[in-house]
Amino acid sequence: MSIDYKSAGVDIDAGNRAVELMKDAVKRTYTPQVLAGVGSFGGLFSALNFKDMEEPVLVASTDGVGTKTKVAVAAQKFDTLGMDIVNHCVNDILVQGARPLFFLDYVATGKLVPETVATVVQGAALACERVGAALLGGETAEMPGVYLEGELDLVGTIVGVLDRKDLVDGSTLEEGDVLIGLPSTGLHTNGFSLARKVLENEDLFVPRDFLNGETYAEALLKPHREYVLAYRALKEAGVNIKGMAHITGGGLIENPPRVFPEGLGARIYEGSWEVPALFQKIVELGQIELVEAHRALNMGIGYVFMVPITDFDLAFQVLREAGETPYRIGEMVAGEGIELVAR
To answer: How many CB atoms lie within 10 A of CB 215?
Structure first.
């Protein structure tokens, strides 16, 4: 009996169908710098626009959405996963002040369902459009035996650029500088293994009063948001942004110190922002200790700006005018790491 690729578990036609379904959404992200279309072996992006910079620096980051895909599979809801991975990567390079240029995605499945893959990529395209990045290319991998049928994995890579003189690296931070936190929309793309463990005996699809009628699944699948527009508003207003932190795995305990100079730490006041009900319930059901909760989960703060006290009022005003809900969550102090203080 003859064996072909499809009988071995890989359907080339399904892959081609997925590309057709996503093609228009991908093309909408193209900027004038994109020189090669869908299906090229390599994405081409013109660097001519960099010539107005004194010393252009490329900034790159790769990440995944982790086990959030397990919740998406259970709910059969995939439209936000693409947004998750794009916005996660965008925020990672934003920490150093980089402007996103282009993004590449990698979607892997046990059995390729064209409509599912296309939905994921269409979500990524929407997120790319919002921040002005091109969805330059990607890969769809059907890997029977590696992934269970019905499961998928999602990874993304972003490349951005900045002029070296505009690099934000935390090196000028000093005692008394203020930490301003912006809200997350939920767990974003971190802490899902803990959340799933805590909620394993809960029905994810029953509306909950404490979630304003949403189900756990709906609350968990809210997309990871981006903070590019907030950053641009602050920059245009002339706020001196000394440092930034994207609150991902490690939470508020481990992420801000990644940009602190030697000899400096920060005091963060628990209770200085509104912790969403979803986090409160996860902490309650899991009997999670305070520090562990702030290491594993973002606890409602997705991004932190670090500014001089003299710029705080202006920064707060600008963020509010930009539609944000900023919180003064702490300040820089002598020492190291994060001191979490109950207010």
So the answer is: 17
Per-residue tokens: 312: 């705080």
pTM equals: 0.93
User: CA of 245: how far to CAs of 100, 153, 160, 281, in Å?
Assistant: 17, 26, 17, 25
Domains 12-163 and 178-342 share a fold: no
Residues 234-250: pLDDT tens digits?
Answer: 999 999 999 999 999 99
Q: How far is CA 119 from CA 67, 104, 151, 340, in A?
A: 18, 16, 15, 40
Q: How many whole angstroms separate alpha carbon 89 and alpha carbon 62?
A: 7
The continuous run of DSSP H or E covering 61 comes out as: strand 56-64
Q: What is the pLDDT of residues 150-184, one digit of tens each?
A: 899 999 999 999 999 999 999 999 999 999 999 99
What's the token pair of residue 33?
């710098």
In the chain, the N- to C-terminal Cα span, in Å, equals 73
Where helices occur in the chain by DSSP H, the ranges are 12-27, 68-75, 81-94, 114-131, 192-198, 216-220, 228-236, 251-254, 277-286, 290-296, 312-321
Rg (CA), the chain: 21
Sequence spans of domains, the chain: 12-163, 178-342
CATH of 178-342, one of 3.90.79.10, 2.60.120.280, 3.40.50.620, 3.90.650.10: 3.90.650.10
